[in-house]
Design brief:
The protein has 565 residues and is α+β, with helices and mostly antiparallel strands. The protein has 3 domains: 259 residues, no CATH class; 88 residues, no CATH class; 152 residues, Topoisomerase I, Chain A, domain 4 (Orthogonal Bundle), CATH 1.10.132.100. Helix content is 36%, strand content 15%. The protein has 16 helices and 16 strands. The strands form 6 sheets. The protein has a 4-stranded antiparallel beta sheet with strand order 10-9-12-11. The chain has a 3-stranded antiparallel beta sheet with strand order 2-1-3. The chain has a 3-stranded antiparallel beta sheet with strand order 6-13-14. The chain starts with 23 loop residues before the first strand and ends with a helix.
């Protein structure tokens, strides 16, 4: 059970002011952890490494909250010159203190009239109060033995509750919810599924710098950024009228609005020592379709089924993260601007996140040096059973120099993407070897192939991340690409040697197997020959010691031209 958390105002009325009370967990640059108020986070941002939430999705939601505060306090930045002034000024967040003081009335978690991110007086027809399990996402439904809160959440401190309130608006599950009084959508005491919290639709992406100060500034998109629409009246939730029960159908006005979108109506039940229950219902619905000009923290994909249904083109949906695919293998979606254009089409199949388009603008216009290192952080929730539960949470990152995002100099990005294609080609060749050895031994199954592929990707991941982080150290990315091909050949070739050594006598003797055109006597020797040929052909024989340097570069260029971008 959490420690008691007595909080009150000067008149004895219970209060928990988020602007001055510690509630945001942080990691300091010296490696220690702390808990700070909103005001302290901005005052000490230069000395903080990052936010550390109870879950990665909570961290993402809190970063978006901080960005909404910063955008509103600065009323922008309006253009790249205003951003540059902030970047150059060590104490750039000083105005945030006065801003929080001016709006502190809307940041009281326990306020009677307008509690933070809640609806005052929210109640069901039977005055039910529900378990905090409904907002605490690290208690998996049906899997109580995999949480330290087993089996239910009985109480939360006010600090914990504040974090989970922010998370609920961002990532709450869908499903049938108990209806609240005043919600016109209630049918038979229930409201039927209206979708997950807004951030739950996204394959979340943001950029991390060396400190929280850099992280916040790098994600603080200027209002004049192309392909991002921010209305003059854009405002976060605390500068709007307090939400009543039910939902309002309206279009978002910009990033401040979306970062604090009230997808739920909730009300905490508490006493002087903490929170013990919650009422939770649906809030403002927001379809995820075609929000690429408003939401910068996700990549986008064209949806052919939606285009057919709506009879218009293009239609874009957020590009969600695949839990089984590491971030480095999907780097093309991060560094490629608009890819997969159809013949004669003006719309690409994929759009990279607007937040990375913004960083691309910063490096292209010279605001960031080409070798400046950032981490592209990806965070997302994967829902199951009609989005009524969270099955998995994705949390990964890719460290890269910002030159990979440069709009005019695309050489580095092209080689980074092509290097992943090198890895994919080699891994596929290894998978074919595992399959062919199993066929030669008469033990065909999918197991050996998937095992070999997983092992290869696992061994290539760390070398690729290191290679990528140092790609900008050279003026010739093609030479770096050749060095990478050499690494891939050595790593995957070594795995092939291990497979051959353990193949067994049955595979060595072989047997007749059907091919597309006739049959073939397949044994381990032939399987190995096919494997080596595939590596040589795909990687341009980077293992050849007698290949002159310019020939290796030419080979790399040829492979780049063939590799998918």
């Amino acid at each position: 059970m959490p420690e008691t958390d007595q909080s009150s105002g000067g008149d004895g009325v219970l209060s928990f002011d988020l602007t001055v009370r510690p509630w945001i967990p942080v990691l300091r640059r010296n490696g220690t952890q702390d808990e700070l108020s909103l005001r302290e986070v901005f005052e000490q941002a230069h000395d903080l490494r990052r936010i550390v939430g109870d879950l990665p999705t909570q961290e993402f939601a809190l970063v978006r909250l901080l960005l909404a505060v910063a955008h509103d306090a600065f009323e922008g930045p309006q253009d790249i010159d205003a951003w540059s002034e902030l970047w150059a000024e060590e104490g750039c967040f000083a105005p945030v203190g006065a801003y929080l003081e001016a709006h502190r009335g809307r940041f009281d978690l326990l306020d009677a009239g307008a509690p933070f991110f809640q609806t005052a007086g929210l109640r069901t027809g039977k005055d039910e109060v529900f378990s905090l399990n409904r907002i605490v996402a690290d208690v998996p439904n049906g899997e109580p033995f995999f949480t330290a809160r087993m089996p239910t959440v009985e109480r939360l401190t006010f600090a914990e509750a504040a974090r989970w309130v922010v998370h609920a608006h961002a990532y709450d599950t869908s499903g049938i919810k108990t209806g609240v009084e005043g919600d016109k959508r209630v049918k038979g005491g229930r409201v039927y599924p209206l979708g997950v919290g807004w951030a739950g639709n996204l394959g979340g992406v943001y950029v991390e710098g060396r400190t929280l100060r850099e992280t916040l500034l790098l994600n603080l998109v200027a209002a004049d950024t192309a392909n991002l629409e921010i209305d003059d009246q854009d405002a976060p939730a605390w500068r709007r009228e307090p939400c009543g029960p039910g939902g309002a159908e309206r279009a978002p006005t910009g990033v401040r609005d979306l970062y604090t979108w009230q997808t739920r109506r909730l009300r905490l039940h508490f006493d002087e020592t903490g929170v013990h229950g919650v009422v939770l219902g649906y809030g403002d619905p927001l379809p995820a379709r075609d929000r690429q000009h408003r939401e910068p923290m996700t990549a986008w994909r064209r949806s052919k089924p939606q285009e057919k249904k709506l009879k218009r083109s293009p239609v874009y949906l957020p590009r969600e993260h695949a839990p089984e695919r590491s971030a480095w293998r999907g780097i093309g979606s991060l560094v490629a601007g608009e890819v997969g254009k159809d013949q004669g089409s003006e719309a690409g199949a994929y759009l990279r996140p607007g937040i990375l388009e913004w960083v691309a603008r910063l490096v292209t216009e010279g605001e960031l040096p080409r070798g400046f290192l950032v981490r592209a952080r990806i965070v997302g929730a994967c829902y199951g059973t009609q989005q009524s539960v969270i099955d998995e949470i994705v949390d990964d990152h890719v460290s890269m120099a910002v030159v990979l995002l440069h709009r005019q100099d695309r050489r580095y990005a092209e080689q980074a993407v092509a290097a992943v294609a090198d890895a994919d080609l080699a891994v596929n060749a290894l998978g074919d070897l595992a399959t062919n050895l199993a066929r030669a031994a008469g033990t065909e199954s999918d197991g050996p192939r998937s095992t070999a592929r997983d092992l290869a990707y696992g061994l290539l991941e760390a070398p690729y991340r290191t290679w990528l982080a140092h790609l900008a150290d050279t003026d010739d990315p093609y030479v770096q690409r050749t060095a990478w091909q050499q690494q891939v050949y050595e790593i995957v070739g070594g795995l092939g040697d291990r497979l051959m050594a353990t193949a067994g006598d049955a595979a060595w003797q072989g047997r007749t197997v059907p091919l597309k055109h006739g049959t073939e006597w397949l044994n381990s020797a032939l399987a190995d020959k096919w494997f080596r040929t595939a590596l040589h052909k795909g990687l341009g024989r980077p293992d050849s010691a007698d290949m002159p340097p310019d020939a290796r570069t030419a080979s790399a260029l040829e492979t780049t031209a063939k590799a998918p971008a």
